[in-house]
Fold:
Amino acid sequence: MTTTSQSTAPVLCTVKDAVVLLRLGRSTIYELMASGELPFTKLGRARRIKRSDIDAFVAQLPAQSI
Structure:
């Protein structure tokens, strides 16, 4: 028997998915997309964000020092 390791995380995320993942508001996600800070793909009327782009966005955020 062969087992393969497959991730259940989606490759393309909806804006709603991004809201949940980033814990930001819907408007903020759209603002990040409009400014180019969060790249997205438009498929018809739907906007999709690559999970790898969400991860890259988080990685580039500066660390907060207190």
User: Anything to note?
Assistant: The chain has one domain: 12-59. Helices lie at 15-22, 26-35, 51-60. Strands lie at 12-13, 41-43, 46-50. The mean pLDDT is 90.
